[in-house]
Specification:
elongated, alpha+beta, 165 residues, two-stranded antiparallel sheet, single chain
Length: 165
């Protein structure tokens, strides 16, 4: 035969079909009040069925604390905290400049010396050029040298001729 708690199913019917064969009612497990975990309680649904459900604890609303007026504004506190950092940065920059000052002065003097050498070289070239053009003592005629170089191929030997005029 069949057991009393087992549903009867046949290949022609579907299990749990409410028209052909309704799902059998299973026996409910009974919980003792000591077995109900915290946060779970018996509730009554709108259709009248009582069931176990998770519940939220109900606390009495606490009044919000009144905001305390600060004697010093927040922006002033932030500025006061940033001031030592800014002052420390300026002090560090001054300290670095004091160490770098002798080197900077020496570099400035070296640059002025370089400018003087360049100026003297340009002035000497100008004086030499003007001295030659006047036809001064011992200055011969200006010679022009032309050189023609020819080479055949990429690695060919080059040959050239000088033309003095």
């Amino acid at each position: 035969m069949h057991e009393p708690n087992r549903p009867i199913t046949t290949p022609a019917t579907r299990y749990g079909d409410p028209i052909h064969r309704p799902r059998p009612i299973e026996p409910h497990t009974v919980l003792m009040p000591t077995e109900i975990p915290p946060g779970v309680d018996w509730v009554t649904l709108p259709n009248g069925i009582r069931t176990l459900a998770y519940t939220q604890p109900h606390y009495a609303p606490t009044p919000e604390p009144e905001p305390v007026r600060e004697a010093i504004p927040r922006w002033a506190k932030t500025t006061a905290l940033l001031a030592p950092t800014l002052g420390g940065g300026i002090a560090a920059a001054g300290f670095g400049i004091s160490y770098a000052a002798p080197g900077v002065l020496a570099m400035a003097e070296a640059l002025w010396a370089t400018v003087a050498v360049i100026a003297a070289g340009g002035l000497a070239a100008l004086l030499l050029r003007t001295g030659r053009s006047r036809g001064g003592r011992g200055a011969g005629p200006v010679q022009h040298i032309t050189q023609n170089i020819t080479a055949s191929g990429m690695f060919g030997r080059a040959s050239g001729t000088f033309n003095n005029r």
